[in-house]
Every structure is written in structure tokens, then in C-alpha cells.
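Input C-alpha cells:
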């Protein structure tokens, strides 16, 4: 885990064992660094203040912000369990390959109330230090299932009563017009950068929907598109339940 917010959330969540924390010893003082040291002390986690040269030998990215932690691996969740969880709002990622995009998507997902993320085991980026840094600690609060294939996972979600919505730039149905009941489990499906959803994935979702474009550009980065879609689903579900959201 690298990055100040990622390490802080790792310690705050307390879901997995943290072995040690490394901090560059000549960093300027910051409240978040004090939080990290205090949280590590409370959890009896060793904090090692080291030179920049020593830290560089430990770090795996260049955007570490002078802080990293070594921790136990993330626990995988079961797909069926995610599907039947109360208020299930899932995010299915069909072949995201850029760590920055995946990290940004996961951060948005946590903020939008996603209850579970489905990731493919192969031909996609995994949860790396770069992803955790960009996600700013979101991975500590998201349940994630790894599956052998996204099309098969979608079939299973359908069997379990989850409504699946695939985001596709060329779809005739607007994301703003899709019917989303407040009490219906739903899964939003995002495709890979450039190529979008795979053929089998497009065939197995219940609905294909696009984000309306009114400007001169005709596409959004997958992380941006995912953010728009996640919060649209959240808005529609809240409206359906009669609850009000605050700004």
C-alpha cells in the first residue's frame, strides 16, 4: 500500500493485519502523517522513519507521497454473497487495463455506495500499489470478487435476480432513462478502455445504456463515464425510495 490516504484508510479500517509502515524521515509535517503514526501506534504497528534512499528501495511506484505500508492480502468476496446482500449495488469491470482508471473507478464506487465490485482474474489490471494509491483507501471499504470470466458472472447475477446495465457509448437507451427501482439489486457494467464491453458481455446484460453527449467531443474516459453512471444509479434509487440526498 502506497500513498498517505491509502495507508491511513488501511489503518482506520482495521480489516487486515498491517505488518509495518515506512515514512521518509525528512517529510514536512502534515496532519495526515500524524494520523498515520497515531493509528499505527494504537494498532501496535511498527513505524519506520527511513531515508529517501532506503525508502526508494522499498517503494514500487513514484507517487508514494513518502508513505507505504506492508499488509496482509485483501480478502476475496463471494459473487453470490455480493448479489444477495441487502441493497446490492454492484460494479462489474470488464477488462480495465489502466491502473489509474481502476483506482479512480474504485474511489468513485466507494463514494457512490457500491456494495461490491466484480473483477476478472485475467486480461485486466489487478489491485496493485498504483491502483491503491489512486483509490485513496477505497479498497479497504469495498467487497471485491474475482471471477474467471465476466460473461459467466453476469449469467449468474441474472439467475440471482440482479438487474445488469452495461454502459455502451453507442447504445440507443440513455442512462438517464433506464428504470431503476430502489429495492432491486443492480449491477453496473463498465467495459475496457477503447474497446468497451466485450461481445459476450454486451449479449448478457439486461440493458445497454449510454451517457448523452451534447458537446463537441463524443466520448468520456471510462473512469469519468463510470462516475456519471454510478451517481445516476444512486440518484435514481434514492428518488425511488423517497429519500433526499444532500449536496
Amino acid at each position: 500500500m502506497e500513498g498517505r490516504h491509502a495507508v491511513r484508510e488501511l489503518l482506520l479500517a482495521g480489516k487486515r493485519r498491517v505488518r509495518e509502515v515506512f515514512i521518509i524521515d525528512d517529510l514536512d509535517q502534515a496532519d495526515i502523517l500524524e494520523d498515520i503514526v497515531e493509528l499505527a501506534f494504537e494498532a501496535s504497528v511498527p513505524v519506520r522513519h527511513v531515508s529517501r534512499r532506503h525508502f526508494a528501495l522499498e517503494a514500487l511506484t513514484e507517487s508514494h507521497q513518502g508513505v507505504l505500508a506492508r499488509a496482509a492480502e485483501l480478502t476475496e468476496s463471494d459473487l453470490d454473497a455480493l448479489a444477495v446482500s441487502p441493497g446490492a449495488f454492484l460494479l462489474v469491470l470488464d477488462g480495465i487495463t489502466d491502473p489509474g482508471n481502476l483506482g479512480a473507478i474504485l474511489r468513485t464506487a466507494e463514494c457512490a455506495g457500491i456494495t461490491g465490485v466484480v473483477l476478472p482474474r485475467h486480461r485486466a489490471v489487478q489491485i496493485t500499489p498504483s491502483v491503491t494509491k489512486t483509490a485513496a483507501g477505497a479498497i479497504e471499504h469495498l467487497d471485491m470478487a474475482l471471477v474467471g470470466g465476466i460473461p459467466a458472472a453476469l449469467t449468474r447475477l441474472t439467475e440471482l435476480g440482479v438487474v445488469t446495465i452495461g454502459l455502451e457509448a453507442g447504445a440507443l437507451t440513455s442512462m438517464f432513462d433506464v428504470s431503476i427501482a430502489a429495492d432491486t439489486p443492480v449491477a453496473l457494467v463498465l467495459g475496457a478502455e477503447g474497446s468497451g464491453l466485450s461481445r459476450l458481455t454486451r449479449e448478457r446484460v439486461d440493458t445497454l445504456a449510454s451517457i448523452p453527449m451534447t458537446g463537441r467531443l463524443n466520448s468520456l474516459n471510462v473512469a469519468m463515464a463510470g462516475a456519471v453512471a454510478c451517481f445516476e444509479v444512486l440518484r435514481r434509487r434514492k428518488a425511488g425510495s423517497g429519500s433526499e440526498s444532500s449536496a
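The beta strands are 18-24, 47-50, 67-71, 89-94, 116-120, 144-147, 163-167, 186-191, 207-209. The mean pLDDT is 91.
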